[in-house]
Amino acid sequence: MSGSVAALSLAGALWFSVSGATAAPAPSSAPLAGEIEEIRIIGERPGPRLWKVTHGDHVLWVLGTLGHLPRRMRWRSSEVETAISQSQQVLASGPSVSANIGPIAEVRLYFQWRGVQKNPNKSALKDWLPAPLYTRFETQKARFDPDDGRIEELRPAFAALRLYQQAMDAAGLSWHDQAEQTVLKLASQQHVPVKRAMLAVEDPSGALREVSELPPSLEVNCLETTIARLETDLPRMQQRAAAWAVGDVDRLRQLSFADQREACISALSNSPRIRALFERAAAAWDNDAEWALMTDRVSFAMRPIYELLAADGPLARFRAEGYTVEGP
Question: What is the rounded distance in angstroms from the CA atom of residue 179 to the CA atom of residue 80?
Answer without folding.
Answer: 11
